[in-house]
UniProtKB/TrEMBL annotation, chain A:
Sm domain span: 27-94
Gene name, Swiss-Prot/TrEMBL: LSM5
Natural source organism: Lachnellula arida
Signal peptide: none
Stored Gene3D superfamilies: 2.30.30.100
Family classification: Belongs to the snRNP Sm proteins family.
Record's keyword terms, sorted: mRNA processing, mRNA splicing, Nucleus, Ribonucleoprotein, RNA-binding, Spliceosome
Compartments, as annotated in UniProt: Nucleus
SMART domains membership: Sm (SM00651)
Main localization (coarse): nucleus
Record note on quaternary structure: LSm subunits form a heteromer with a doughnut shape.
InterPro entries assigned: LSm5, LSM_dom_sf, Sm_dom_euk/arc
One Gene Ontology cellular component annotation held by this UniProt entry: spliceosomal complex
Protein name: LSM complex subunit LSM5
Purpose: Plays a role in U6 snRNP assembly and function. Binds to the 3' end of U6 snRNA.
UniProtKB/TrEMBL annotation, chain B:
Role description: Component of LSm protein complexes, which are involved in RNA processing and may function in a chaperone-like manner, facilitating the efficient association of RNA processing factors with their substrates. Component of the cytoplasmic LSM1-LSM7 complex, which is thought to be involved in mRNA degradation by activating the decapping step in the 5'-to-3' mRNA decay pathway. Component of the nuclear LSM2-LSM8 complex, which is involved in splicing of nuclear mRNAs.
UniProt keyword list: Cytoplasm, mRNA processing, mRNA splicing, Nucleus, Ribonucleoprotein, RNA-binding, rRNA processing, Spliceosome, tRNA processing
Record-level GO cellular component terms: nucleolus; P-body; sno(s)RNA-containing ribonucleoprotein complex; spliceosomal complex; U4/U6 x U5 tri-snRNP complex; U6 snRNP
Subcellular location: Cytoplasm; Nucleus
Organism in which the protein naturally occurs: Lachnellula willkommii
Signal sequence interval, chain numbering: none
Protein name listed in UniProt: U6 snRNA-associated Sm-like protein LSm6
GO MF terms held by the record: RNA binding
Family annotation (Gene3D superfamilies): 2.30.30.100
Primary location class: cytoplasm
GO biological process terms, semicolon-separated: maturation of SSU-rRNA; mRNA splicing, via spliceosome; tRNA processing
Amino acid sequence: MASQLLPLELIDKCVGSKIWVVMKGEKGMLHLLEAIMSVQLTQTLCTEFSGTLMGFDDYVNMVLEDVTEFDYSGNHTKLSKILLNGNNICMARLRLSSECNH
Amino acid sequence: MENGIASQGEGRDPSGFLSEIIGSSVTVKLNSGVVYKGELQSVDGYMNIALEKTEEHVNGVKKRSYGDAFVRGNNVMYISAD
C-alpha cells in the first residue's frame, strides 16, 4: 500500500516552489451580482495570489515572496513579500512551468 | 513532523517573517479590500495588528490617516513588507 501523504505534507513539499493560491469568494457581493446579472460569477470573484512559498504554519498562514495579487476586478498588484492569512484560503496548487511568465 | 519547522529560519515561516518586519513600514489588506499602510508596531497570534502613522486607502484612494491604529486579526487578508 502506498504511504499516505497528509495535506500539510503536500504543502510542505511546495516550500521553495511557485504556487497559486485561490481565496474564498466574496459571498455577499457574489449573490448580489448574480441576482442582478443572472450569471454564475464564482470564478471571477475570487482573489488569487501567485508567488514563491517560503513557509507556512499549522493554520496554513503562508509566507509568499515575489507575489502577484489578482483581484476580481482584474487588477494585478506586485508585492515583494507577504504573510497571507490562512483563514480565507480556499485552494493552493503548484504553478506549472508554462505559467511562470507573469 | 517536518511541517513548517524544517523551513524555519530568518523570515521564512510566518512567525519569523513577522519578527523580521516589526518596526518597518507595511501594507495591510483587509478582506473588504480596504488597505492600511503604516509602521508595524506589533502583531499577535490572531494577526491583530497595531500600526503607527497609518494611512487608510479605499479603492486605491487615501481616505484618512491615524496616529495609532488597531486592526482586529479576523479581518486581515495579508500583511506585506513594503
